[in-house]
Design a protein that fits this description.
The protein has 4 helices and 5 strands. It is of the alpha+beta class. Strand 3 and strand 4 form a beta hairpin. Pfam families: MaoC_dehydratas (PF01575). This is Dehydratase.
Length: 147
């Protein structure tokens, strides 16, 4: 049973778990979706500004989404994402990084019959506690009230 938006804890930092990033997944994701040389070619990446292979920003955002869904969202009756207010890539993600995800529900507001607009702030941090991604997202979540 998924809970309604009104049950989401506002202002509480929620732990969404961790993900260990591998070079194989970085290269596989980027080969399919963002084949820039510093994501897919070890030799060329070694001579880039990054000094080696790094994860695509889209890959990093996908890791956030997976952790947020499995860690928090599956417990709520999410209808759909609505808007990414901001998305900031703060430092490169490399093979061997262990990323931890947290979200804070900023607000839950009625948004028509049967649904609420939920605004969250999310962060991915590496194993050193340094943020690699920050974002703000609005989603629609079913309300306790009938549609």
């Amino acid at each position: 049973m998924r809970r309604p938006a009104e049950d989401m804890p506002i202002g509480v930092e929620l732990d969404c778990g961790t993900h260990a990033v591998t070079e194989q997944e970085i290269i596989e994701f980027a080969t399919e979706w963002d084949p820039q040389y510093f994501h897919v070619d070890r030799d060329a990446a070694a001579h880039s500004n990054f000094g080696g292979i790094i994860a695509s920003g889209l890959h990093t955002a996908s890791i956030f989404q997976r952790l947020a869904v499995t860690g928090v969202y599956t417990g709520y009756d999410v209808i759909a994402g609505k808007e990414i207010q901001s998305l900031r890539f703060l430092r490169p993600v490399r093979a061997g990084d262990v990323l931890s995800c947290t979200i804070v529900v900023r607000s839950v507001e009625p948004d028509g019959a049967g649904r609420c607009l939920v605004s969250i702030a999310g962060t991915l941090r590496n194993q050193l506690g340094r943020p690699v991604l920050e974002l703000e997202v609005d989603s629609l979540v079913r309300s306790r009230e009938e549609a």
